[in-house]
């Protein structure tokens, strides 16, 4: 029997305990070994007619929680799937009580809904992340909840973005009682009550079909809009089936909906985006770092607060003294919010506050074990200094930090040791920004992606599209920062200088704008007319473009929306492949996440490297070779290596 499932009987009660950790101590969900062991136990319990009740519970780590919630619904090997386990639990002759603790989600939600009674610890939280991943809960998690408490309650849980606390969860039928560390006698008494008075009906919400449907109606329009419209529409169909169909047919309907949604491109992209975010936010794999005295200069107060919460002492300084006061106020507000929510006790807050100091000058950082500082002025000699730059520099001896687009890139220097890198990474991951590890060279991951994005968009314009068509093609995809508006926001001269810095020649359109002094938004004109603070097309731009095309020998052609997107995404993927080949980036996931933050690409795309995998490396390389005739960079060798070996960019993350 798997170590993750324990079983004992006492006084006619069967106790089944599920471990939330795997053999290595890492959090794990309903893996095949756990499901196989649990299935065998439920068969054993079903044959033991001497038992008067069954308790299913998590261990000290709580119930199992998968890193990817959709993995709980896997149908691998000979182990029973989650739907079979939930049905076996619901079919037991003995009353079943689910004692809930930790995070209840995915498989734990499905099993707890198959029980007759649910008792939650006060700290238990509930979340249904499947919808945000383009799917719905399965194995009865949605149908059984809808039949018990109504379709509206099931949809409310489905669309929540944050965990639901136990008290609020009671109103949605996720638990019936909240008990703090219940004694076995209390649990036995609850089961005896179920045995004597009968199990509460599992279809109570079906007694008034009109009220059931009326409660769903206000949620219908919102669920059918936006990037999650398809999963929203299927979720509505499932909760309607819970009312209109017998239970077994409704469960089948739910299973088909889940299979369709989870196999769709949208769900695959959203799951990939979630994995990338989890990898870049997760703590480093090294040993826990001892508390340090850390100096921060012109750094976000959120980082200071996170360092204090982790037990470090922080010296907060800023070039503008008023920013220090604002930083202290921000930290105090966040701590007070946590106190009010009950996640931080006042004594701990006072202890954290006592470890916070201020530095009015950079000399005030003296004596720190680590300093993270922006600006070019020197700081006192420090065991570990991390300058914050707007770009990486080739051949640097020490590490540097690049903050850009809401993402943090840590670039080790030529003499940065593995231990130093691990300490820096562990400290930075305490903050609220994703952390990626860069490599040697000029410019960071974000810089390269932004410049490649703009250059690819300019080439699409020269090929025949208008400025507005290019940006609109990306906007319709869900991009929040279309490329040519980004160029105007950055400044045309800055874009040109950046391209030259990474050894790329600016295109003729960029060169013309720079020559004429059109800087973009700052000067009132660039790719767009910004004279009234809003981006408007430039009336005579077509004439200038015709002249540029004639000079470059380009015959313009009509480009559709799909063509514009494909060529820009292909060039971005080639830039990412180049970064990987030069070891200036180490994971395709890091590039995908940087593109989301720096360019505003939607999670529904998955990422530029993911999109190349989905489009096919062979087809993308073919497109890239065609684009080289228009001045695009040649596809780097990594494409050939991956294609020759039958690999994808995703395989690079599995090394």
TrEMBL record:
The keyword Isomerase applies. GO terms for molecular function: (3S)-3-hydroxyacyl-CoA dehydrogenase (NAD+) activity; enoyl-CoA hydratase activity; isomerase activity. It comes from the Bacteria. Keywords: Isomerase, Lipid degradation, Lipid metabolism, Lyase, Multifunctional enzyme, Peroxisome. SUPFAM superfamilies: 6-phosphogluconate dehydrogenase C-terminal domain-like, ClpP/crotonase, NAD(P)-binding Rossmann-fold domains. One of its GO terms (biological process) is fatty acid beta-oxidation. It catalyses: a (3S)-3-hydroxyacyl-CoA + NAD(+) = a 3-oxoacyl-CoA + NADH + H(+). Residues 445-530 form the 3-hydroxyacyl-CoA dehydrogenase C-terminal domain. The keyword Lyase applies. Monomer. This is 3-hydroxyacyl-CoA dehydrogenase C-terminal domain-containing protein. It comes from Thioclava pacifica DSM 10166.
């Amino acid at each position: 029997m798997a170590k993750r499932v324990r079983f004992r009987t006492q006084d006619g009660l069967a106790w089944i305990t599920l471990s939330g950790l795997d053999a290595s101590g890492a959090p794990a969900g309903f893996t095949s070994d756990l499901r196989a062991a649990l299935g065998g136990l439920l068969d054993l319990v079903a044959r033991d007619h001497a038992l008067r009740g069954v308790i299913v519970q998590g261990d000290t780590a709580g119930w199992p929680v998968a890193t990817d919630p959709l993995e709980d619904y896997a149908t691998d090997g000979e182990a029973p799937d989650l739907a079979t386990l939930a049905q076996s639990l619901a079919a037991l002759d003995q009353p079943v009580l689910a004692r809930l603790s930790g995070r209840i989600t995915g498989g734990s939600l499905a099993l707890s809904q198959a029980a007759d009674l649910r008792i939650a610890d006060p700290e238990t939280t509930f979340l249904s992340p499947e919808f945000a991943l383009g799917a719905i809960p399965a194995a009865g998690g949605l149908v059984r909840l809808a039949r018990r408490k109504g379709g509206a309650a099931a949809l409310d849980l489905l669309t929540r973005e944050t965990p639901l606390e136990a008290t609020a969860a009671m109103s949605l039928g996720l638990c019936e009682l909240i008990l703090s560390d219940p004694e076995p006698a209390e649990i036995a008494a609850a089961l005896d009550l179920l045995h004597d008075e009968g199990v509460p009906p599992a279809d109570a919400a079906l007694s008034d079909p009109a009220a059931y449907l009326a409660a769903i109606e206000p949620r219908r329009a919102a669920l059918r809009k936006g990037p999650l419209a398809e999963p929203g529409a299927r979720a509505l169909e499932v909760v309607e089936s819970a009312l209109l169909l017998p239970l077994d047919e409704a469960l089948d309907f739910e299973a088909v909906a889940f299979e369709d949604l989870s196999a769709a491109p949208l769900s695959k992209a959203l799951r990939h985006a979630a994995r990338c975010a989890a990898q870049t936010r997760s703590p480093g794999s090294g040993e826990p770092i001892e508390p340090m005295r850390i100096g921060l200069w012109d750094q976000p107060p959120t980082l200071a607060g996170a360092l204090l919460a982790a037990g470090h002492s922080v010296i907060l300084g800023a070039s503008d003294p008023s920013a220090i006061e604002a930083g202290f106020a921000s930290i105090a507000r966040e701590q007070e919010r946590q106190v009010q929510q009950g996640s931080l006790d006042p004594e701990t807050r006072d202890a954290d506050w006592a470890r916070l100091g201020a530095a009015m000058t950079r000399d005030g950082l003296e004596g720190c074990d680590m300093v993270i500082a922006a600006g070019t002025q020197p700081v006192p000699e420090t065991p570990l200094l991390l300058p914050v730059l707007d770009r990486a520099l080739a051949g640097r001896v020490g590490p540097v930090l690049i903050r850009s687009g809401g993402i943090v890139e840590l670039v080790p220097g030529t003499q940065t040791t593995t231990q130093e890198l691990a300490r820096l990474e562990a400290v930075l991951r305490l903050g609220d920004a994703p952390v990626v590890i860069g490599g040697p060279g000029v410019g960071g991951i974000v810089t390269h992606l932004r410049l490649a994005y703009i250059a690819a968009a300019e080439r699409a314009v020269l090929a025949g599209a208008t400025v507005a068509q290019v940006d609109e093609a990306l906007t319709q995809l869900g991009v929040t920062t279309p490329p040519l508006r980004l160029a105007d926001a950055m400044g045309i001269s800055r874009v040109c200088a950046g391209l030259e810095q990474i050894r790329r020649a600016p295109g003729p359109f960029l060169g013309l704008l720079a020559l004429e002094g059109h800087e973009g938004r700052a000067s009132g004109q660039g790719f767009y007319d910004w004279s009234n603070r809003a981006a408007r097309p430039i009336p005579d731009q077509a004439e200038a473009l015709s002249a540029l095309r004639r000079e470059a020998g380009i015959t313009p052609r009509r480009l559709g929306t799909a063509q514009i997107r494909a060529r820009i995404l292909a060039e971005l993927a080639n830039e990412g492949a180049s970064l990987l080949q030069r070891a200036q980036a180490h994971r395709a996931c890091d590039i995908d996440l940087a593109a989301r933050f720096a360019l505003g690409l939607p999670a529904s795309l998955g990422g530029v490297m993911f999109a190349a995998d989905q489009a096919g490396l062979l087809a993308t390389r073919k497109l890239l070779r065609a684009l080289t005739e228009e001045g695009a960079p040649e596809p780097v060798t990594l494409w050939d290596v991956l294609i020759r070996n039958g690999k994808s960019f995703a395989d690079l993350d599995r090394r």
